[in-house]
Amino acid sequence: MTDRLVAHFRAMARNNAWANDRLIAACEALDAAAFAAPRTGFFPSLRLTLSHLYAVDVYYLDALEETGRGLAVFQPSDPDFARPRDLRIAQAASDLRLVAFCDRLAPTRLDARVDVDRGEAGIVPERTDALLAHLFQHQIHHRGQAHAMLAGTPVPPPQLDEFFLDFDRHRRRF
To answer: Within 13 Å of residue 87, how many CA atoms lie on the same side as its CB?
Structure first.
């Protein structure tokens, strides 16, 4: 069962990279004003929502890779990408790191604890499998919000759920 879970995480990492690339590529058709325009969502613009996704990915990758930067990854401030192209490049690099992490992941490491810097709450050890599941859920959650925001622009939002089935195999890049 653990081999299947590792294979699932590897597939999720690839799906994550594919979906991020498709969504941010669609945003490249927007001008800077439309990318930053106020919209309904937890983070009130495409720019802020997608910048948040990138920042949190870097934060959790720091914990998973055990590089020890913790909340310092957000310094001097959260990244706020003015141009979707710059965000797409940064997000792709982060996504490739996540794919590489999952490709190196051994089944015996799934229940290993990694330290997550939670600021005033201190260091919280989290299981690797739970942290990966949370990271993917976080991505899906906010990508869905960005997808809905994009639907309110002249740019059609891309299909993001065509990845796992054999029928969709030709759409995969990763």
So the answer is: 30
Residues 6+ apart with CB under 8 A from 171: 18, 162, 163
Note the maximum CA span of the chain.
Answer: 48
- Which tokens in the block code for residue 33? 């004003």
Task: Tell me yes or no: is domain 2-171 CATH 1.10.760.10.
Answer: no
Q: What is the enclosing helix (H) or strand (E) of 140? A: helix 128-151
Structural tokens at position 129: 């499998």
Terminal-residue alpha carbon distance, the chain? 24
Q: What is the pTM of this model?
A: 0.92
**Mean pLDDT on 43-62:** 95
Percent of the chain topping pLDDT 90: 80
Residue 158 tokens, joined: 């891309």
Check if the beta carbon of residue 87 is closer than 8 Å to that of residue 51. yes
DSSP E strands in the chain: the ranges are 113-117, 123-127
What integer pLDDT is reported at residue 76 of this predicted model? 65
State the Cα–Cα distance between residues 148 and 141, nearest whole angstrom.
Answer: 11
Name residue 124's beta-bridge partners: 116
pLDDT digit string, tens, across residues 102-160: 999 999 999 999 999 999 999 999 999 999 999 999 999 999 999 999 999 999 999 88
